[in-house]
Amino acid sequence: MSVENTTATTTEAPTHGVELSEAAAGKAKALLDQEGRDDMYLRIAVQPGGCAGLRYQLFFDERTLDGDAFRDFGGLKVVVDRMSAPYVQGAVIDFVDTIEKQGFTIENPNATGSCACGDSFH
């Protein structure tokens, strides 16, 4: 009797800890649909800048960078680069459409403070 040792190895793409609300995913998907693009991702990045030191960047991107982490939210792929991932771990992105405010909002448990205008964090 022979026993075969078959170990399945799977290589999974890294994922990130950003959450996207249904409203945010729907709005981003609608914007891509308006442009007729299904080959782009919603990229979330953290860049130096702003009066508090760091600034969020949300934009559509077709590039793939080394170390990118992906997640799928109802057909919308969201990507975070390797350097930004620790800064946005556990962050929740929502889309608000009220009389007072319209746009994407980010609730980030890693941000210890933000500037008065709310454009940047540290």
TrEMBL record:
GO terms, molecular function: 2 iron, 2 sulfur cluster binding; 4 iron, 4 sulfur cluster binding; iron ion binding
Ranges where the Core domain occurs: 18-119
Gene3D superfamilies referenced in this protein's UniProt entry, alphabetically: HesB-like domain
InterPro entries: ATAP, ATAP_core_dom, FeS_cluster_insertion_CS, HesB-like_dom_sf
Signal peptide: none
GO biological process: iron-sulfur cluster assembly
Protein's name according to its UniProt entry: Iron-sulfur cluster assembly accessory protein
